[in-house]
Amino acid sequence: MKTVFFDIDTQIDFVYPAGALYVPGAEHLIDKIASLNRHAAKTGAPLVSTMDAHRENDEEFRNWPAHCVAGTVGQQKPAATLLPTRLVIPPSDWAERIDGCEQLILEKRHLDCFTNPNLEGLLMAFDADRYIVYGVVTEICVKLAAFGLLDRGKHVQRGGIAVGVFA
Fold it and tell me: Max CA-CA distance within the chain?
């Protein structure tokens, strides 16, 4: 059974108390998320890690405080969640090979990871039987990723690691 792991939005602004949009308790999940990410690499399963990459004046900041602005520390993923061989996929047209890459970091400017036009092509390339979804924030971005996969006829399994509710 081919499996793809989806690590949703584990970024400094969300997972640490000093982050701009901290999710209470998220810092306690970093080791577990890192373990799942390493397991994906160990088993040769693709890992898609979504990452907010906002512009300074993004529309989303009308509803939420500014967070995960591209190029800031808050936008970065905790080092423990990163795999050695990774590739950043921007939210614009992109056409690079993913062969040999352990972690695909899918940038997005909106809540829904499916707003990155490259995700559909990745799903086709993966042709997986199962998707394991975990991360932050449960009731928003994790939910959108899981339901987006379900809407596309994919089998989704909860990774058992997710938190929600902003402070």
Answer: 43
